[in-house]
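haha ok so turns out i had the wrong file open the whole time. this is the CORRECT one, sorry everyone. sequence first:
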Amino acid sequence: MGSRGGLSSVKNKAPAPIQITAEQLLREAWERKEVESTKAPKQKITDKNELREYRQGKRKDFEDRIRMNRTHLPLWVKYAKWEETQQEYDRSRSVYERALDVDYRSHTVWLNYAEMEMRHKFVNHARNVWDRAIALLPRVAQLWYKYAFMEEMLGNFAGARNVFERWMKWAPDENAWMAFVRFELRHGTTGNARNVFERFIQSFPTIKAYIKYARFEERQRETGKAREIFERLSDELPEELVTGDYYLAFAKFEERAREPERARAIYKYAIENIPKAEAQELHSAYSAFERQRGDRAGVEEAIYTKKRIEYEEKLAENPRNYNAWFDLARMEEANSTPEKIREVYERAIAHIPPPDEKRYWRRYIYLWINYATWEELEMGDLERARQVYRSCLKSIPDKHKRFSFSKIWLLAANLEIRRHDVAEARKLLGQALGVAPKEKIFRGYINVELALGEMDRCRRIFAKWIETNPYGVTAWKEFAEMEASLGETSRARAVLELGVSQDELDMPELLWKTYIDFEIGEDDMDAARKLYDRLLEKTRHGKVYQSYAQFESTNGHVDKARKIYRDGDRALKSAITEASAGTDGESEGLAITLKQERVNLLKAWKDLETKAGSEEGLAEVEKKMPRKVKRKKPLLDEHGNTSGWEEYYDYVFEEDDEAAPHLKLLQAAQSWKKAMSAQQS
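then structure:
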C-alpha cells in the first residue's frame, strides 16, 4: 500500500522494549542544563568623576534599601562598613549614629562602631563610643570586656582598672570578677587581686567563690591564708549551704599541703555530719586518700564507712529491708564498738512487720536470733541474751495465737539450760506447748529431757504429743523408737500396736513399716508375718505385696514369696478391672497407676525366679508380662472442649485382652446407670 499524504505508514505499532517516563526526561534535562554565569561585570574606575558617580550610586542604593526597611540593622552596619572602606570616616560615624537612633539596644552596632574607631586609631572617639555603650547597656558583658581590653592594649592600665571598677558596681557574674583578677595578676598587682577576691566573695557568698579565692592564695604559695579562707567559709556561710563540695575541696587542699592528718580529720567530720545522699563522692575520695596515705586500718575504715552509707540509704528507702539490716549488723560486728552494734540491732528490731502475715516475720525473727547469739557468744552476756529472747517472744502478735515460731522457744529454753536453770527451761517449753503445740517443740522438749535422763518426763511429753495430734505418725514412731532404745520391748510393742490400731493416720504405711522392722529387729519373724497379713487386710497396694515377698525370700521361703506374688498379681488385676470399668478421668488415671504397680510387682517376681533358677516360675511370670503401647487421649479446656491430644504409654496384659468384652459390658452398664440417674434428677 502507498503512503497517505506523503507520509510513510507505521509498520510496527508494538510498545518499545524500554519505556521512557516523564520523570526520566525531566531528570536528564536537569542534568544537562548549563550553569549560567551570575558574576557581575567588573567596573574599572579611571578618574575622580567616575569615582564620585560610583559613590553616589552606591549611597543612593543603600539609602533606598534603608528607606524600604529602616529597622534592618545589619544593613546599616554594612552601609557604615562600606563608607569605612571608602575612608569616609565621618560618613561612617554618621551612619552608625543614625543606626543607633533606630535601636540603641543593639550591642552589635555599638561593637562595630567602636571597633571601627579602634581600627583607625581614633582612640578618643572609641572611648566616647564605649562610654556611651556601657552607660546604655551595662548588662552586656562583651562591651565591658572590649573596652577594658582596648585600654590594656594601649598601656592605659589605670584606665582599664577604672573600667573594671565601674563594671563591678553593677554586680556582674563571677566570670567578670575573674577577668578583673586575671587583669591584676597579669600586671603583678597581687594585692589588688586579693582585694578583688574579697569584694567578690562579699558579692557572691557561695562555696564556689570561696574555693576560688582559696586556690588563688594556694597558687601564691600562701598556704596559711588559703586555710584561713576555708575556715572562714564555714563561719560566714549558713550551715545549710555548707555541702560536701566544701569539705572535699578543703580536704584536697590539706592533702596538697602535705597535712594528711588534717585531711583525714576533715573527711571523717564531713562523713559524720553531712546528709548521706551528698556523701558519695566524698566517700570515694576518702577511700582513695586512705589507700594512698593511710595504713591498713585506715583503708578498711574508709571502705566500711562507704558501705555503711550505702546500707543507710537502702534502709531510708525501706526500713523493713531486713537483708540490709543483716548486712549492716554483720559489718558493725566486725568493726564497731558494742554500743554501736547494739544500736544497730535495736534500730532493726524496732521496725516490726505487719501482724497479719507470718511470711513477713520469718526474716525479722532472725534479727532477734542474731542479736541474742551475738550477746551470748561475742559479749559473753547471758543475761542480755536472755532478755533479747524474752522481748522477742513478747513481740509476736496476739500472744502467739495467730502464729508462733518454734525456733525461738527452743533457743530460749536451751539458753536457760546453759545458764543452769533447768526449771526455767521447762517452764518456757511448757508455755510453748500451751500456746503453740508444734512437732518441733515437742521433739525439742523431749530431747532436753532425754539429755537430762528424765525418761518418765519424756513419756508424759510423748503422751501429750499423741493426745494433741493422735493422727500424726511421727509421735507414735518416735515414742516407740525411744522405748526400744531403752530396751523396753513390751512398751515399744504396745505403743506401736496402739498406733496401728488407730482408725485414721496421716501416713499409716510408715508406722506399719516401723512396727514390722521392730519385730524383725527382735528376730520374731512370725510376728512380722502376722503384721504383713494384717496390713494386707487393710490395703492391697503392690508395694506391700512386694515387701512381704522380699521378706519371705530373704528368710529362705521362696515358695511363700512366690505365693505372695501370685496373690498380689490377682489383687492388682482385679483392682485394674474395676478401675477400667469407670468412664471418668479419675478412674482412668487410677487404672494407669495400678498397671504400673502390677508391672513393678511382676518385675520383682521375675527377679525372684531368676535368682531361684526356676524355669517354670520364670515362664509363668513371662506369660503375665504386658505389652507396652503408645496411646493418645484428648486434652480438654476449661469449657470441656477438646484442645489437643496427649500421648502416653499404657500396658496391655494378656488377661485384659481376654476380658475386653466383659469390660466393655461393664462400661456400658455404668454409662446407662449414669444416664438414668441424670433423668431422674
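Residues 581 and 667 are 5 Å apart (CA to CA).
again sry for the mixup
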